[in-house]
Give the backbone structure.
Amino acid sequence: MNEKQYNLLKKSVKYWNRYRMMYPRAIIDLSSANLRSADLLSANLSSANLRSANLSSADLSSAKYSILAIFRAKITSISDELTIELMRHDAEFTGMDKMTAWAKGGECPYKGMERDFIFLEKKELWVEGTPTHRGLDLWRWIAKEQNIKISV
């Protein structure tokens, strides 16, 4: 994480957006940033690295961001239903058989894999199946459970 960028964003979205206009090619690294309950209304977060950032209860209304970048943010305290959905999404990349073997005590199916979602998976919930939500619908569900305000 870039501490200077993080501190500027926490100080004021106005100053943050001015910084983004002055340095449009800057590499934005907010990975692992604690943005819990942050007022990011209209913040320009396009191309920002938000991997493992805590966005719980943040206000992202009218903010500019990449859904993929947001997916890689840290997801905490989610329902069992959303946990299963995210595990099924992961299983599309790892393979259902590997997820099922893992749930029965086998090797971690995520080994050496960069995951789209950072969340606490639960072996005891695993049931094979196809994800029912994708893209924007999945983001809306995550945002609702994380109490993240969005405008999509």
